[in-house]
Amino acid sequence: MITKQVAERVLDKALSNGAEFAEIFVENTYNSLISFNDNKTKQCLAGNDFGAGIRVFYGHTAIYGFTNDVSEATLLKVAAAVSKAAKGKSKVKVQDFTKLEFENKHEIKIPNNTVAKSDKIDFIKRINKAARDYNDQIVQVHISLTEKMQDVLIVNSEGLWAEDSRNYSRVYASSLASNGKEIQTGTEGPGGFAGYEFFQNIDPEELGSKTAKIAVTMLNADYAPSGKFPVVIDNGFGGVIFHEACGHALETTSVAKNASVFAGKMGEKIANSVVTAIDDGTIPNQWGSENIDDEGMPTQKTVLIENGILKSYIVDKMGSLKTGYKRTGSGRRQSYRFAPASRMRNTYIAPGKHKLKDLIADVDYGIYAAKMGGGSVMPGTGNFNFAVSEGYLIRNGKIAEPVRGATLIGNGAEALLKISKVADNLAMAQGMCGSVSGSVPTNVGQAAILIDEIVVGGRK
Predict the structure, then answer these.
(1) Is residue 90's pLDDT more than 80?
(2) Distance of alpha carbon 84 from the chain centroid
(3) pTM exceeds 0.85, yes or no
(4) What are phi and psi of 443, to 5 degrees?
(5) Domain total for the chain?
(6) How many beta carbons lie within 10 A of that of residue 257, not counting itself?
(7) How far is Cα 204 from Cα 185, in angstroms, rounded to an integer?
(8) What is the pLDDT of residues 188-245, one digit of tens each?
(9) I need a labelling partner for 107 at 20 to 30 A (CA). Which of 291, 408, 426, 454 fits?
(10) What's the pLDDT tens digit per position in 431-456?
(11) How confident is the model at residue 459 (pLDDT cuts 50, 70, 90)?
(12) Is-contact 279 314, C-beta < 8 A?
């Protein structure tokens, strides 16, 4: 992407006014999008994004600039611009570059750009047909198929030279059901750090029918009750509550500013002893995985909470400087247009010893959240509200009639302490997580959990 000689000159320029650290991130990315609705292919786009970002550190301050022109002259201009954040003489010399060696844990069998678009559209059409054939109340189906092939180079003044290639594949399907007065939606969005073989391992008819089933079931359901109830949240996307209400509060992006309810609580009990939570970037071919992060550090498995005790934060390079905690290979960014920050990867509550039926059997009257939807969180406090996109009442220890319109309202720190049982059915679900360094692919996950009491907002 750039030569070592160019990299050395650019880093020297970035350090020239007394910076303590300098880094270059170069990216060449192929993106592809096919979108489908109204029984038609609406978009079929593909293109390349190529550019570089330069970052310098002055103490605990980071300055960042970027460009889509990676000529030496332009890179030197950007380096000169970021170097002017402070005035002084250079005290740091660029170390000799050493190429980072690491194990590639992610086998890409079929690169996405080697498959005809007609094959991809046929795959989408099968999802669409299955969803529409499920029930006459399905009035619309939206499907998007996205692919990303990214080559990155990370070079810094400490002598790091790291190169990697990444391949992401995802299909997102949404079915809308209507009775003429109201609309309900069912969605699924499986994805992976994988090539086109990921789509070949998906049953399109099953995917389409699943989204339609959720939409139709919720359309014909009664409204959920309001009050404080025990709630069983099933696996997979149920983990979005931990991700949003707790995970972001464990990133040094917020911890270093004391803008987190978990700041200063390392080694303390912050959850019920049945809770172990993990952020793991090493799981082969998972959506949130990488070989190296966007600062050039090999990713790792990080135990955040072990048996209720806070064991680690999610730490990037600047976060490590500010807090003193070791880096966890969690510096991530959307593209060269963003400086990296501490971000989650595959974040999940580890499985326990119970069966889902055991959790249900413990509840006389409550809510079973089979699938969670979106919501909002106040990062500084951990207060949250999340919609239940597929919900059922629990009566006398058994799943009863479906209910719609349920919202779970609570506080992340308090909810962790009220988790009394964890099932053994760990599953992951895919999403895009937005933060200060842009939008990055992340997995949320958990085995089913029983929260003894939480506020449920409903209309009954």
Answers:
(1) no
(2) 35
(3) yes
(4) -95, 135
(5) 1
(6) 11
(7) 18
(8) 999 999 999 999 999 999 999 999 999 999 999 999 999 999 999 999 999 999 998 8
(9) 426
(10) 999 999 999 999 999 999 999 999 99
(11) confident
(12) yes
Q: Cα 430 vs. chain centroid, distance in angstroms?
A: 7
* CA separation for the pair 47, 166 (Å, rounded): 16
> Does a structural domain hold residue 116?
no
Domain that holds residue 267: 227-457
187: nearest Cα among 397, 429, 412: 429
Task: Let me know how long the chain is.
Answer: 460
Q: DSSP of 99-117, one letter per residue?
A: EPP-------SS-GGGS-H
A 10 A CB-CB count for 247 gives 25
Question: Domain for residue 437, yes or no?
Answer: yes
Nearest-angstrom CA–CA distance, 39 and 457: 36
**Mean pLDDT of the 252-259 span:** 93
Joined together, the tokens standing for residue 354 give 């119970």
DSSP state of 250: G
Report the DSSP pairing between strands 438-446 and 61-67: unpaired
Q: What is the DSSP letter of 224?
A: P
DSSP lists the bridge partners of residue 394 as 366, 399
Q: Both tokens of residue 215?
A: 């939409």
**Any domain includes 257:** yes
- Asked whether residue 204 is assigned to any structural domain, the reply reads no
- In whole angstroms, what is the distance from residue 273 CA to residue 347 CA? 18
